[in-house]
Amino acid sequence: MLFKQQGFNHDEEIFHRALNVSDEVKRTVREKIFFSSFSNALQAMDLFEDINDAPRSLSTVTGDLEKCLQMIDSQQEYEYALLSFTMYQRLTKSILAEYRMKNSSDSEDREAMLKHTIIEAIMELKRQKEKEESEDEDNIDNEEETGPFAVSHSRMMTRLKYVKKSNYNFAKYMTMMQGNKDTKSDFDIEDLLGNIFKGDDD
């Protein structure tokens, strides 16, 4: 194994750097994991009216992992993907659940979505307030928090949109991600709630 051969940097506090994995490789692998999970789920939803009819390769964790590994370009990416896959793949689940509810015609789903959205809005405002009050500059992902690759709720929703907009092409997806440079925050409570109320008016 590459990590075993190259050793570890125990003086480095940030995990991927302690593995001698660069920030660029970490970001690329993470985005491939997000992309593979979103891509499989979106294609399953588009192609099958009942998600249970979708092939297992589009609807399981191992299916997502298989797709991710098909996109890997180096041994280091391969090993880091195996090490971090479950952690990042889990982050896509709540986003996909929200997407399904937003696009559902079922009134009970829409009511559940409205409740979920209000709770998420409150939690996001709370997170922003705590972040503004915090003076800790040593956050593990501090350099990415306000950029296009931030792992926030709004940026995860943007990732989902870009996967579909790219026609499931990872290179195009990354170009879209890099071209959208956030400033302080892209959270907008009115935008978060807008689609729900719009649907209720139809």
List keywords for this structure.
single chain; 202 residues; mainly alpha; 10 helices; 69% helix
Tell me the domain tally.
1
Q: Describe the global form.
A: globular
Ends distance: 57 Å
Strand content: under 5%
Please tally the helical runs, counting DSSP H or I stretches of 4 or more residues.
10
On the 0-100 scale, what is the average pLDDT?
Answer: 80
List segments where confidence is low: pLDDT < 50 over at least 5 consecutive residues.
135-144, 181-189
Binned, the helix content reads 55-70%
Taking all Cα atoms into account, the compactness measure Rg is 18 Å
**SS-based structural class?**
mainly alpha
Q: Please give the number of β-strands.
A: 0
What is the H/E string? HHHHHHHHHH
Largest sheet: none
Structure explained in plain terms:
By secondary structure, the chain is an all-alpha fold. The protein has one domain (2-201). The protein has helices spanning 2-6, 15-18, 23-47, 56-59, 61-70, 75-102, 107-133, 153-165, 170-179, 189-201. Helix 7 packs antiparallel against helix 10 (189-201). The radius of gyration is 18 Å and the shape is globular. The relative contact order is 0.11. Residues 135-144 and 181-189 have low confidence and may be disordered.
Question: What's the gist of this structure?
Answer:
The chain has 202 residues and is mainly α. It contains ten helices and no strands.
List the helices and strands and how they pair.
Elements: H1 2-6, H2 15-18, H3 23-47, H4 56-59, H5 61-70, H6 75-102, H7 107-133, H8 153-165, H9 170-179, H10 189-201
Helix pairs in contact: 3-5, 3-6, 3-8, 5-6, 6-8, 7-10, 8-9
